[in-house]
Design a protein that fits this description.
The protein is built from eleven helices and 14 strands. With about 300 residues, it is α/β, with parallel strands linked by helices. The structure holds adenosine-5'-diphosphate and magnesium ion.
């Protein structure tokens, strides 16, 4: 179990992590989601003892990371963002080097095991810099699990990979995570949705949501999302939002030369459809279609992490 208590990290005057609290239970697969700059890597660096917190506590299996970093490092396997590797070394030598730092006794056996698990047979004697990104990531995963840790922490493990490599690495992560507690960070919802049971969303250093996919969606069912297909001038559509009030414009897109598809959202407690229709009539726009749309997790994420003042 991992516990984060009132965790804060300041870089000079910038508060990158702002009093966050959450727990991760044994065996859980947690997606740590947030836009770029939200504070994900900073949080993960603190859990993995690479960065001291400014305030607050972290416990890993009841070890306080500040007093027991040796024990904590043994329990955790970590693949940092951008997977820093010694690219001049060949795969075998690099993994052996990591095993030595980790002071693993039976390192030959462990090396064999991780090479097998991570599908590195064909490349053990190749210098790392000659490998594809997908294989470099496999090496990164191999070094993270070499000491057979209970907890695996992966910081944006599929970023920069092509779609095929993403599928492969995802499968590998699923496999490796089977008997472990797993934390995967990402700025892409689909990424964590594909693998994780629970999602914690961080934004501007603060936790803005924590729950299962279904829980997060249902917490947003109090919003109604409306799709309007209109014949109107795209640049005039913002007038709708300004005039009706208490509705927000999620997007507009041109379907054809004339037809604009507009996505609108409002609080389900007040039905805004009548007012919206009246404004459309008043403007002499043609309403081709109006229907409700289901809230997706993507909407939840967008809603929680959108910057004030729009994009
Ligand atoms: P994420 O991983 O979610 O993209 P980070 O934890 O890397 O976010 O960064 C959070 C904030 O802290 C960002 O505003 C980033 O610019 C800043 N930051 C990250 N690392 C440093 C650092 N070493 N020194 C100063 N500011 C940093
Ligand atoms: Mg990051």
């Amino acid at each position: 179990m991992i516990q984060l208590q009132n965790l804060v990290k300041d870089y000079g005057t910038l508060r990158a992590v702002d009093h966050i609290n959450f727990e991760i239970n044994k065996g859980e697969i947690l997606g740590f989601l947030g836009p770029n700059g939200a504070g994900k890597s900073t949080t993960l660096r603190m859990i993995t003892c690479f960065l001291p917190p400014t305030e607050g506590n972290i416990y890993v299996e009841n070890y306080n990371i500040l007093n027991n970093s040796r024990e904590v490092r043994k329990l955790i396997g970590y693949l940092p963002e951008n997977n820093p590797l010694y690219i001049e070394m060949n795969v075998y030598d690099y993994l052996k080097f990591v095993a030595e730092i980790r002071e693993i006794d039976n390192f030959k056996m462990r090396l064999k095991e991780v090479i097998e698990k991570c599908g590195l047979h064909g490349v053990v004697n190749k210098p790392i810099h000659t490998l594809s990104k997908g294989f470099k990531q496999r090496v990164g995963l191999a070094q993270a699990i070499i000491h057979d840790p209970e907890i695996l922490i992966l910081d944006e493990p599929t970023s920069g990979l092509d779609p095929n490599q993403i599928m492969e690495i995802r499968e590998l992560i699923k496999e490796l995570g089977k008997e472990k507690t797993l934390i995967i960070s990402s700025h892409i919802l689909q990424e964590v949705q594909a693998v994780c049971e629970r999602i914690v969303i961080i934004h501007n250093g603060k936790i803005v949501a924590d729950g299962s996919t279904e829980e997060l969606k249902s917490s947003f069912q109090n919003k109604t999302k409306l799709i309007l297909n209109l014949i109107a001038k795209e640049e005039e559509i913002h007038g709708l939002v300004e005039n009706v009030g208490n509705i927000s414009l999620l997007s507009t897109s041109k379907k054809t030369n004339d037809e604009i598809e507009t996505l609108i959202e409002f609080d389900s407690q007040v039905d805004k459809r009548g007012e919206i229709y009246n404004y459309i009539k008043q403007q002499d726009w043609v309403l081709l279609e109006m229907h409700r749309d289901k809230i997706s997790l993507e909407d939840v994420f967008r809603n929680l992490t959108i910057e004030e003042g729009g994009e």
